[in-house]
Amino acid sequence: MSGTARRLFYAFSLLVLTFGAAAYAALEGMAEIHEALHSVRRQETAVRTTLSLATSVRDLYAHQAHTVILGNASHLPLYDSAYHRAMERLEAVQAQATTSEERAQVETMRRTTMELDRLFREALVPAVLREDHATAAREHARALELVDVIQESADTLASHYERAIGKFEEHASTVQHASFQWTVAILAAAALLAAGVGLYIGRSVARPVSLLEAGAARIAAGDLMTRIALDRPDEFGRLAQQFNRMTAALREHQERLVQSERLAGIGRLAAGVAHEINNPLGVILGYVRLLQRKAEGALADDLRIIEEETLRCRDIVEGMLDLSRPLQVPGETLELRELVEEVVSRQRESAQLSAASLTVEGEARVAGHPQRLRQVVTNLVKNAMEAAGPSGQVTVAIHAHEDEVALSFRDSGPGLSPEAQKRMFEPFFTTKPHGTGLGLAVSQAIAQAHGGRIQPRNLPGRGAEFTLHLPRSTP
To answer: Fewest C-beta atoms under 10 Å: which of 47, 79, 202, 292?
Structure first.
């Protein structure tokens, strides 16, 4: 998962765990309360069973008393039924006894009940039937004592169960109160955590999205200088970086499109007027050169100036035609070092270069149009020498990389002004008193036709560097 997705997952997981803890505390308390209530119901059932046992024993004694009072055995069937009921309830009480104390009381009641039955059947009934009133009275007193023992054990056992009921009820109340407190505390913490998660989402998700939205709106409004300052090590930061790269690419594409439209307009203009202008210029040059043969003194100087300006006009027209002509790049392989040295030699011979020192370093091969690449190298060499001045230094360095060749022209001149760097390749822009402003524009067009480009930059300290990037020729 990405950084933001992982953090959101952890945040929501913590929130879910908090609510889960609250639910667990509530369910655990409910389970304990349910168990306590179940125990209470069990103890209440045991109390009722114990009290019903005591009632059965009293019924049993009542039938014994009626036998003594009536002096016959007429109540024996009723006594037998009461005895069976008492034994059944005694078994129920015994089944509900769980502690040693409870089992001891139940055992006392069982033993005493059986002794009471044996006393009744073996001593009291025979004495009644013999009309032995003294023995009957004595055994009846003993039976009453045994009934008191059973009643006391039943009361003790019932009190024990009632105390247990009180403890279970108190425990249930305590658990209920604690569960309520824990649940409220955890839910309060969950609410605070939810607020924190909401703030976190607002800062880590909503704010970057709003910044991206605002940036997209500015681009839609035409502001291609838009840059989103979102330095984050997650997908939003990477998206902002891609967004900034996109705006830079759009800005560059727009600049190229404007440049292309400008060159296309110049090309259409040049194609329309070049023939009409070249013919008069040729006639002017012909007459000027004819007059120069006969002219002397000041007139000869004036004719020379006319010739220079006419040639300058023709160079401008040729430069405009170069911008308008589509360039077909042949696949001819060229040695760049030989090309540079040839250009420098020719420029030196024609005295078109200044006295600046020039050195050539490195070598590489490229595929391209010899005449057009020679034109580019000529422009760049000439510009570097003029910028360096008579006592300056120019270095032409050739570097062969994996997929391209870089041909750098470094001079020791004053460097490039900000305006020159911005408008360097605009047609008719020049910083020279007698420049046409077409040399670098034509050179850039030729470089782009070869799949390359020209990149200018200022060197640290002093000087400038123009680097011609061209695709490397495969051997």
So the answer is: 202
For 196, the token pair is 């924190």
Q: Which CATH architecture has domain 231-325?
A: Orthogonal Bundle (1.10)
CA gyration radius for the chain?
58
User: What gap in Å lies between CA 173 and CA 158, rounded to an integer?
Assistant: 22
DSSP letters for 236-262: HHHHHHHHHHHHHHHHHHHHHHHHHHH
Q: Which amino acid is at 205?
A: V
For residue 104, the number of C-alpha atoms closer than 13 Å in the C-beta half-sphere is 5
* pTM > 0.85: no
Show the tokens assigned to 72: 């016959």
**Are 366 and 376 spatial neighbours (Cβ–Cβ below 8 Å)?**
no
Kindly state the percentage of the chain with pLDDT values over 70: 85
Tokens 């607002």 belong to residue: 202
DSSP state of 403: S
Q: Do residues 120 and 143 make contact, with C-beta atoms less than 8 angstroms apart?
A: yes
Helix, strand, coil % over all residues of the chain, rounded to 5: 70, 10, 20
- Rounded-to-integer distance, Cα 243 and Cα 88, Å: 89
DSSP 233: S
Fold of 329-471: Heat Shock Protein 90 (3.30.565)
Q: Which of 420, 448, 427 is nearest to 317 (CA)?
A: 427
| pLDDT tens digits, 327-377 | 566 668 888 899 988 888 877 765 556 667 888 999 988 888 888 888 889
Q: Identify which has the larger pLDDT, 191 or 154.
A: 154
| Residue 67 · residue 75 · CB < 8 Å | yes
String of DSSP letters for 405-461: EEEEEEE-S----HHHHHHTTSTT--SSTT--S-HHHHHHHHHHHTT-EEEEEEPSS
Q: Where are the domains of the chain?
A: 3-197, 231-325, 329-471
